[in-house]
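Propose amino acids for all 335 sites.
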């Protein structure tokens, strides 16, 4: 099936899955997606064929993937909840379908796989020795994908920094820095001053995946790529970018304050999302920067939207600024 343009996107209702689905559709792919609770067996919306099904049901995934040359595995438990129970079974269903179809699996990777021994600059071949529970699960997930690449499937992993974008949901930008649907009066800064942090604009990540898929037959069966994204060298630049965009659009500059980690610590026993966020706090205390040399060697450049455009598009898309999302913010500037 490697030559056709049919793709199944798991997680198309989410941030990265939805962005990849739309960009693949715009690039001429025939896109299908699973959705639980759909009234009909299938329906077409916005150029995407939605199928009733559940990523946790193997037969649903196998049926939806029939005839597809690519499966985008962008599904995760909402709000980080029940990771240990759900992440690997969903991945196993994708692997089974991809192996049966000889399809390519595309996975949005995470930095959770790496422990401090791989810091501060991390290449694709760096050792994966995480110190956290979620990190260990992600390592196991990628090991299963590598095994699948020896059984007829192909794999492309694109690893990037913290996501942000117009339709992003479970991420630090929309859950920690600002509040979706509300005017930005205060920006929370989770990191320490002077500690760099890596960000990734969702449309840039999706564009990278689409361009790699166009070259998939020339890639190794198990191909991993790191994105440079937006590097916040001192931990202040993202907050200042939000502040500048809001000031320009509203005339009022929000204050930038330290994220209340003490409050998150107190509330974490009762709030699953905060508990999972606390586990990854070390990523705000230590620099981790990904080396994108391998990606540059394949694509020649990395899709990259300027920070001010990306931040403005994200804030508009989240309902924090009044006005339609600007074409400039949605466009991907290639640098």
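Proposal:
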């Amino acid at each position: 099936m490697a030559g056709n343009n049919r793709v199944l996107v798991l997680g198309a209702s989410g941030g990265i899955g939805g962005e990849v689905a739309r960009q693949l559709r715009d690039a001429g792919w025939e896109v299908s997606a699973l959705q639980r609770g759909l009234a009909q067996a299938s329906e077409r919306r916005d150029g995407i064929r939605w199928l009733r099904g559940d990523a946790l049901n193997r037969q649903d995934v196998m049926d939806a993937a029939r005839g597809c040359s690519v499966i985008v595995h962008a599904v995760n438990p909402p709000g980080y909840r029940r990771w240990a129970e759900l992440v690997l079974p969903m991945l196993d269903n994708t692997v089974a379908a991809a192996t049966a179809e000889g399809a390519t699996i595309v996975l949005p990777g995470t930095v959770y796989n790496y422990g401090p021994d791989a810091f501060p600059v991390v290449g694709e071949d760096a050792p994966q020795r995480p110190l956290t529970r979620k990190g260990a699960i992600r390592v196991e997930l990628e090991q299963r994908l590598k095994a699948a690449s020896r059984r007829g499937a192909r794999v492309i992993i694109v690893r990037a920094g913290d996501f942000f974008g117009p339709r992003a949901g479970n991420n630090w930008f929309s859950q920690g820095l600002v509040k979706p649907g509300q005017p930005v009066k205060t920006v929370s800064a989770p990191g320490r001053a002077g500690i760099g942090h890596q960000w990734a604009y969702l449309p840039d990540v999706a564009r990278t995946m689409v361009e790699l898929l166009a070259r998939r037959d020339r890639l190794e069966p198990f191909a991993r790529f790191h994105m440079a994204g937006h590097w916040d060298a001192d931990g202040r630049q993202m907050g200042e970018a939000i502040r500048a965009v809001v000031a320009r659009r509203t005339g009022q500059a929000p204050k930038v304050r330290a994220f209340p980690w003490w409050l998150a610590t107190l509330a974490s026993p009762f709030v699953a999302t905060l508990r999972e966020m606390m586990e990854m706090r070390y990523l705000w205390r230590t620099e981790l920067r990904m080396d994108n040399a391998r990606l540059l060697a394949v694509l020649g450049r990395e899709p990259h939207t300027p920070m001010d455009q990306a931040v403005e598009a994200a804030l508009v898309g989240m309902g924090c600024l009044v006005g339609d999302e600007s074409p400039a913010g949605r466009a991907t500037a290639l640098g």
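The radius of gyration is 19 Å. The longest helix spans residues 83-101.
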